[in-house]
Design brief:
Blueprint lengths: L1 H25 L2 E8 L4 E8 L5 E12 L2 E8 L3 E3 L3 E8 L1 E2 L1 H8 L8 E10 L2 E10 L4
Antiparallel strand pairs: 1-2, 2-6, 3-4, 3-5, 3-8, 4-7, 8-9
Length: 138
């Protein structure tokens, strides 16, 4: 009987721990701080507003310039974000042939906006990542 109570208690604690981690993962915020056109990279700040440390696992996204699909992001590098803090990461952008030309000549082509549409995975929970970045900020 005592063994069953111990197992139930351990199960409830594990469920509480996992639920807390999932909720923390869903609360990750991000801020695109820049795009390095020459290095073809995105600079992001990952923000953890909770007191629980969060494992950022992946960012997968399509990349568009003025609405035209020009490449992808497939960043799968585990990054620990301590509680109530932030972490800056540099995410490589993989461009297709047309994307390389458009990206490198973005000022001449008057490209104003880079769009991202994909998912972020933190603590095993995937959630949407949609963002637009104005190249006038670069």
């Amino acid at each position: 009987m005592n063994k069953n109570i111990l197992l139930i208690g351990a199960g409830l604690y594990a469920a509480y721990f996992l639920l807390r981690k999932r909720n923390a993962g869903q609360s990750v915020k991000w801020n695109i701080t820049g795009i390095d056109i020459k290095r073809k990279a995105l600079t992001m700040q990952l923000i953890n507003p909770t007191n629980t440390p969060i494992n950022f696992d992946a960012l997968v996204s399509d990349v568009s310039l003025n609405g035209a699909n020009v490449g992808i992001i497939d960043f799968r590098q585990k990054t620990l974000i301590p509680g109530a803090s932030s972490k800056n990461i540099i995410v490589p952008i993989k461009l297709n042939a047309l994307g390389v030309i458009q990206f490198l000549t973005s000022k001449a082509l008057k490209i104003k906006e880079v769009g991202f549409n994909g998912t972020i995975n933190a603590e095993g929970v995937a959630f949407p990542f949609e963002e637009k970045f104005n190249l006038a900020n670069v």
